[in-house]
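## Example record

The block below lists the input lines for one assembly entry, exactly as stored, with component labels intact.
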Amino acid sequence: MIWLTWRQFRGQAWVASATLVVMAVALTLTGLHLGHMFGISGIATCHTRGDCASVSTTFINQVQANSTYKVFNTGMVILYGAPALIGIFWGAPLVSREFEAGTFRLAWNQSVTRTRWLAAKLALLGLAAIVTTGLLSLMLSWWASPIYRAAALADGSNGGAGPNHLDPLLFGASGIAPVGYAAFAFALGVTLGALIRRTIPAMAATLAVFAAALLTMSLWIRPRLVTPAHMISALNPANIDGVNIQAGGRMLLTAAVSKPSGLVVSSQIIDTSGRVFTGPPTQACESATASFQACSASIARLNLRQLVSYQPASRYWMFQWYETAIFLGLGLALAAFCFWWIGRRRLS
Amino acid sequence: MTILETRALGKRYRHRWALTGCTLSIPAGHVVGLVGPNGAGKTTLLNLATGLLAPTAGTIEVLGEPPASGPAQLARVGFVAQDPPTYAGLSVADHLRLGAHLNPTWDAALARDRIDRIGLDLVQRAGKLSGGQRAQLALTLAICKQPELLILDEPIASLDPLARREFLQGLMEFTASHQASVIMSSHLMADLERVCDYLIVLVGSQVRMAGEVEDLLGTHRLLTGPRRDPCTYPADWHVLTASHTDRQTTLLVRTDSDIHDPAWAVDEVGLEDLVLAYMSQSSKAEPGPAPREEVQR
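Predicted structure tokens for the full assembly:
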């Protein structure tokens, strides 16, 4: 079975290897340049001088203006694309192609049970999927490590300059989460291919379900996966970015979040008793002639506070492990379903 | 040992029964022809026998074990499916390697020998082969795992006459040299007449007739005689077809006893005519002879 699996997978394996090599070359060349920039930035010795925040911010601005940053963006696109492509081109055709061509009648009448046939395919291709995305993520993490180091030091000086690991977009293209995505997407493709039995529709369905799963996870489940941390601070009037005066003496405020580095789940303006502030509106804000500054100043006198619920950046690896475990678990469940389904023998 | 043993076997696709009440017991050593019109349930029966389908009703055993019940059972049965499937992107040599890797009983020398004689190019992709060549490649794969039973689903339907002859020749060589049994289906009796010594007629999802060709021919007679009242026919006659003119009657009769009445001119019946008679019977007609338990050869 190992031979047949390899023989049928050879083409895709070459594509994956070529992609890895191209990525490795591009990231190494630009990564060395980035390392050089980091070396002369003075960040390594900033603690002795006490100017970490400023040199880090300078470094990040330099990098983001540099053309090598495009490599990072490209790498992110590839790292998000890899699991999807693995699901579409490795997973979906695995069983559906055999049905479309009728070759399952050939494959399943050799002296190998179809359970073993499926086990060999799932294990070898699943492993290839995990290794491929794992290497991609490792390379990109190595490339971006100076930026993240600088970002951690620059944090707080100017509202969190540079990339933030828990940013919904960056989180999924770093660490070990892509490995979980790839395993899930692959198993999803195999499952949908087995159920739909048509390669092209199975590919389309794989893409749709995978994208939906990823969006649901990153926008809805991840922020609520762990009870958020809370931070209460005096409301900085400079952060107020919305004043909404409603009928019935209500005034609703929104404010930007300046502090914590991490993933902000929610932000509320509360009064001294701890309740969400809903008014009444101050005179300056209600007045049609008063300036916004006057309104801000009047709000400042209310002694309001800002309650921020957030996932601290320090929880990055905890989230990575959770998310990887969830997607690996889903992938294993789908694989188990495939074994059950293929053993049922209701096949033509 | 029986090569195929079924009891009240049935298979339903959604609301349609593709096969019902199929009870068969076929001893080893036969080349079995499975004949019937298109859509009679031949492919369903063969897919049940290879384990590609699970029965809805009844039981089936192939070589004494449930089909596809494990690697050992799979190794004992070779299967060439309808429109023989091959991997279009894999070469002839790759297919042989596939056979060698997936079958512990693979006979590599036989495989090379067969490919040489068929004249297949090892580096050619299976997708580029002609229908006849593909069928031969599929037969090679099935044969070289050295099965005890070879199951072939309409193997020669799509072949030209020359390819047909070569295909059947290869098949017969194999059965002779390996003492293997064969079950092959066709909707054309002419394909099977030359090679089969056991026949199953499947019509409208039901087994209409099953038995050794010799027995079938021995128990069926074509009678010609003066027209008379059917009530006067002997009780052990089962009349399959009857045609009448004003004065004369022609009957196709199944009977176990000899016919002594001199009024009837008795003729042997050809296999093709016999099968056609069973196939053209309406489904309400009395079913043919039940498969008899036979002594193992």
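The mean pLDDT of chain A is 88. Chain A is about 65% helix and 10% strand.
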